[in-house]
Amino acid sequence: MSRRAPSVPPLLPGFEYVSLLGSGGFADVFLYRQRRREVAVKVLLADVRADGAARRQFEAEADLMAHLSAHPRIVTVYQAEVAPDGRPFLVMEYCPPPSLDARYKTDPFAVDEALRTGIELAGAVETMHRAGIWHRDIKPANILMTQYGGPALTDFGISVLSAEADVAQGLSVPWAPPEVVSGQVASGLSGDVYSLAATVYSLLAGRTPFEIRGGENGKRALAERIRSTPLPPLDRADVPPALEQVLATAMAKAPAARYPSALSFARALQQVQSQLRMSVTQVEVRDDSVAPDRDEIEDDGATRIRSVVTVSPNVVPAPRQPGWGTADPALTATSVPPAGSAPAAPPDVRGQLSTPVVREFRGPGIASPAVEATIHRAPAEDPVAPDIVHAAGRTPVVAVLAAVVVVLVAVGAFLALRSPPDDARGSDSSSSAPAPVDAVGSPVPAPTAVVGTLQGAQAQFTWGNPDPEDGDTYLYRIPVPGTEASYTTTSATAVTVPAATGGTTCLEVLLRRANGTSSPEPATGCVGP
């Protein structure tokens, strides 16, 4: 079947057409120049705009991308409107070619670059999942490179909110998990983890995971291998076994045997970086689904979890106090975080020329947007700051110093009265002591190769220690959905547990150091009949 001719680029006020970037099933993407920047404009085809399902899918993509585009590893959407000829269009960040799809086939990634790319994208995927969104089509072709050289996830055309997972979906077989190619379930959280790992595998291998060079690689042949064939080794001398094991775990046939989240997958990749003495890539996660005081919201040097910026139609966000908790790309790089906030991440200048704003499409039954052009926002200012500076200028220096001295004397006296003698302090120093924290940010590695074998009514599991130290022990448990099972301690690298009757038995294992620190995420292995 011949490829269709691209559509005619629409005349858009304030935009200058440059060239065609690409064509898809129901839209074309064009390069336009808008003022001093280049943008990618995705335009719905004229012959499908009357198709209600296609139009809803196009609008849903706009909504989802706008909701997530504050993340530095997700392509930014600037605006969504309807062209004078009636075709809806999206204005997005322009990411110059090539995509990862065009590169990995001829230039496989080095190990350090593949690890960095996988971790950065895992942060974007984790952010999506925490917002209740599943991508369902993660693959190299849907990962572009920004003008600053970082990967950015795009093409949310078949993404869905988790509550809508039963809708029809497209399928990219080479990176799809077994349960999807078998038609058992629609792709969801576990499927995204699988597809992300399959993408990292492709970047390293220079081919799709189950592709056989010179062999039959049609959809049916690939689907059969995905369902039944073990993941082929990468056959690269520079790829460590630990990385092969991480990819094999993330691409396990059984969803329950995979990493439970994209963040868990990212942390496993970080452990490989640590073992290879590489700089550990930070995971950028934005979360609007949890309270700020949850234990997992932390800045451990390797993971940063922030709130998601939701871009609402027809609304210009009011200026906010800049700081660690804000993830707005339109804030200036000179913003000062509030006192007591954690260190700010390097500023992301993508999209600063225009606040990402998505407006509803015009048409029958759809409200007309209240604003007709890209909305620009002036840098937020602190209205209190001028008064504070002015008052400080009038405060005598001597008075300030005197106040400081008084405070220091008071604090010293208070501590002297409260502090018990040295012998009293030493008598109960071990009570309620917090677990040691690795200040460098390199987590204790998880056990590797958790493998189970059935022995009648019992299941025996074995595992490895990637970095053994004196005093290491292990915590293990059988995960039970909906409950928080307690861990059992052992010093061995093998245990026997009761096997599930007629089902799959899984085991989660943590490595615990002699100082009390443990793996941030368990390693999981499963065995079934």
UniProtKB/TrEMBL annotation:
Biased composition (Low complexity): 332-343, 427-442
Protein name per Swiss-Prot or TrEMBL: non-specific serine/threonine protein kinase
Tree of life domain: Bacteria
Record-annotated Protein kinase domain positions: 15-276
EC numbers on record: 2.7.11.1
UniProt keyword list: ATP-binding, Kinase, Membrane, Nucleotide-binding, Serine/threonine-protein kinase, Transferase, Transmembrane, Transmembrane helix
GO molecular function: ATP binding; protein serine/threonine kinase activity
Transmembrane stretches, start-end: 397-417
Pfam family, one: Pkinase
Main EC class the enzyme belongs to: transferase
Region Disordered: start-end pairs: 314-351, 419-442
Binding-site residues for ATP, renumbered to this chain: 42
UniProt key word Transcription regulation: no
